[in-house]
## 1
Amino acid sequence: MTTPIVLPWPLQSGLEAATRALFHPGERSSADFLQPAGEAALVPPDSISWRVFKNPLSLLVGGIAAVIMELAEPRVRAGVWEHTTFRVDPIRRLRRTGLAAMLTIYGARGKAEAMIARVRRMHDRVAGSTPAGMAYRANDPELLNWVQRTAAYGFLQAYHAYVQPLSVSERDRYYAEGTLAASLYGASASTSEAALEMQFEAMSNRLERSEILFEFLTIMRSATILPLPLRPVQPLLIRAAVDLTPHWLRTIVGLTDHGLNRWEPEVVRQAGVFADRLVFEANPAVQACRRMGLPANYLYVQGNAL
């Protein structure tokens, strides 16, 4: 069992502010994870998901890995690049995406369902054609499934690889926990790691290389995602995200030489383990525990007892 860490005040305060900016981007009515008191989330506090999503480092790495995989699908890529602010305002887009993920896992169920309904209404207006002439709709179940499954994979793999290894049964439990949220989004979740791998394989012939993917990685290297003292490690975390994607996919999209060097995975792991012991009051995981009447450090003290 590990002991949560409290950092010296200047560093603790700075990281608290960064956490607040990431997960509470001015949308206070929907981003209050403390209310309504006692209202359950879509998944319970003793879930694998609550422990995986509390770690800010693995969330960042896993989220980038998921987007890499999403952008390999030409219809998803066109929808993201033509109908979102990733190119012109990547930070705002990352914050909104991060908030949506946190509300899905930690938000009171009523707030999570309302947010997901808003997302689906917005997606109803997103449609178009790829440069090759393929029509797409954001609420197409096949595309929703790809986005949901790559996101679930990215977040889990980042935690598994760079924070705490999880057994096959724990990973299967995590995927099964996503069933309800996926159905609300209009997608169908994989209920096991084996099923997910088969579903990825079935999509492999639809994936392709694109310069947009490389543009996305360039944006992620230079965007002001991390607090200033941590900015030098940002390129390392981008490479860690590339490393999380399946090797066969990296071959398809041309990223086989864009991952970590031999000694770097251990550096990322040490950082991930350290981040897993930091208790920030602004973290939705901490606020959700308080909403449910649990200690603020509930997920951190229990983190090694999955």
## 2
Amino acid sequence: MAIKTYVAGEILTAASTNEILANSGLVYVSTVAMTTATTNIDGCFTSTYDNYRVIIEGTSANAVSTDMRIAFRTSGVTNNTAIYYSNILFATNITGPSWAYVGAAVSAYAGVTADVHLTNGLDIFSPKLAKVTSISAQGNGFGNSLAVVGNWYSNFNAATVFDGMAIRNTNGDVFTATCTIYGYRKA
């Protein structure tokens, strides 16, 4: 829906203001508490949005630093097919920078967990469309004497429609975090 362009001297009405606010870029979808090693979030992807922004913030109970992974779900069933591919670029204050490629895995790399604090921002592209679903993620975590920052680029390499996701801690430690999902408004 096109947004009206105003010219000098024109009056901005309440209806026009409401239209502008309704056409904002990111639209809140839901917030989920993460309190287990795997959190299943069903029904978060709909035909209303093609792309999503996911913010995960909180702490992980036991792990100093492990990978956070995502597997996509359809109708409450996690797709564990080994066709997730990931490129990972990260650095720690102990080991310095590293790069890795992981192919044919049963979940996509999508961030880091830590025992004191973690913040991950993920963009998920096309989960509800019959095409490859991609993830671009940035995150950081710190705990005890370790600090980790990184970028993760992953995809599910098949034209599959998903309506949810499973977020996993790779070593099975319990998450204590909040996952907030936003949809990118379509033009």
## 3
Amino acid sequence: MADHAKALGLAGVMGGWDSMITAETKNILIESAWFDPASVRRSSRRHGLHTDASHRFERGADFNACPVANALVARLILESGGGRVEDELSDVIVPGIAAKTAARAPISVSVPEVKRILGTTAQDAEPITSALVSRTLTALGCDLREQSSEKFEAKLPSWRLDLEREIDLIEEVARVYGYNRFANTLPTSLPLIAHPRAAKEAAVRARLLALGYSEAISSSFSSEAEGAIFAAGRGQIALENPLSEEARLLRPSLVPGMLTMLAHNLNRDVRAARLFEQGAVFGGKQQQVAETESVAIGLTGDLPASRLYPAKDAGIYELKGLVESLLSLFAASPDALNVSATANAVFSAETPVWLEAGRGATATLGGQPVAWFGELAAGEREARKLRQPVFVAEIDLDALYALPLKRATARELSRYQAVERDFSFTFPDAMQWDRIARTIEALAIPELLRVAPVEIFRDAKSATVPKDHHAILVRCTFQSQERTLREEELAAWSARIIDTLSALGGVLRT
């Protein structure tokens, strides 16, 4: 702001020394002006001055308030200091500025559009009607002209420069009406499509939680030393600007983070922990990063022994059962949704270097490895100062997600009595239960409902059971959906089962 000779102040920011009122001031020129918000903001920032005036003008003042403000200041001066008004008000309006502020074009407001955008109201709330929209916008200063029963033309108030489109007026209706008065429904204008893997991720997470494991989250980075051990041929992706030496790589495996979390628990006297983490791992080359989904599982603590294995092996067998349980969620092919993928899984001795030699296994599906599990290598445990054995597993979820989920099926319960038959056999220790069960199921007896091991025992003195052998009691349950089973049928099936187990190398105990 300037006169014909010099500057008097910064427009919309601060007045100058030469224009201030002092005790000798006799004549006052009252100026009331509207300043462009963007210009005021730039001037305020450039000079480092933030004042009450700049704070208000930056946010857009009322264009039509200038004559009113001028008259009000003049009246207050006359009432407090005396004097008289010398001349009439000189009002200069720039048409281009007025067209962007007080003289903006009216906006059409459609009541059906208001309802569509805002959604359904709660049952006990007043419904949104034309009268409610009109009442709300009129109270906010809009001058409404009715175009039809459900459409208005709103002339915007000069003090609301933030109103530019119909959606702005709809937002004002919602604000005044109250967001809490709308029902909790999703907007119909936004189609929601579930991620193709969402159901499979949820199934894996639900199964792990049901098995007693807690979900955890670790860092997405790892050190170069960890990458050399856990990358397993996937490649290492280095960061150009790492946060620290311990975070130079995108993690090639979830196992390092899992071990860090287990160590965190052990160092705080939590002796037993069962954790899992689902997340992305990274491999490939710097120019073409390969991102895949994986899950890491870790457990440590006092694990009970079993008749089948000692306590020191309990963690390995628990992870083996957990891997089989996760594999059982998925089907081998869309045409065989009732066939468990576990039947095609083979546990081999080829394990990663971070597992103790002879204390782990690799699960393969269709000849391709999908999981690695076992006891953590002693060197890794000592390097991380873990004071007790730790068992870990990593599963390639991308390989599992390529398969469809098994379809849950239910059949009507039979109204006929189920019959159980027990078969006591002696087998060499090398004979596994899985092979026994599959051999009996291969007989394809339609009425065979269930096969289960009831009792397994050994004789330390080799009096009743030979050395390096075990005795097992196999219980078979038969039931028909259509009739009561006859004794001669049961006898024939029992004979087939005995002959099959005998051919498998078992000796019938009498």
## 4
Amino acid sequence: MRRRVVVPVAALAALLLGASAAEAATLTVGGGKDCYRAGDALLLGGSGYTPGGLVNVTLEGRQLGTLTADAAGNISSPLQVGNLRGVSQRSVVATDATNPALTATSQFLGSSLLVKVRPQSGAAGRRLRLNASGFTTGERLYAHVKRKGYLRNVFIGKLKGPCHTLKVRKRVLTRATPNGVYTVQFDTKRRYSKKTKVWYRFRVTVT
């Protein structure tokens, strides 16, 4: 004897609505960049959310911002990328505050803006291991060694890949560098300028 499973109409409707709602929301990431870094704007576009409702946006579990859907349930707004670690694909999620079943995910390639220097101490003039990423404003990386009355511009190497990365051994300070405290600034400009907006810098003491 076959047993019949009876599902109440109201419950069945709720299940169907829940399934369609979960599939209704969409999310896309635009902005025309192959790789994003801290400070860049993600141009988010989405649909299928509660009309006039709030939509929470998270990046890898971290709150990125809150958008308001228009009368048709669409969202469209730039949100700035916060600090990132390493170079990898990132997941951004938009979830309806009224109905959390309305959620969608999109991905983008993101990178930290960073130069790792090894070793961090030792004699001036030695070759350093440099690991750079996120310098998406140019094709070449430079180091500017600076203190009052002293400035030296050093070509580090050509950046590669969508996130403009570079691994190289390079001599940044010469053996003849005078004793003192120096600022070393990495950027994609051949000459040092106070107006350069994208850079990574640190201080080093030569004794």
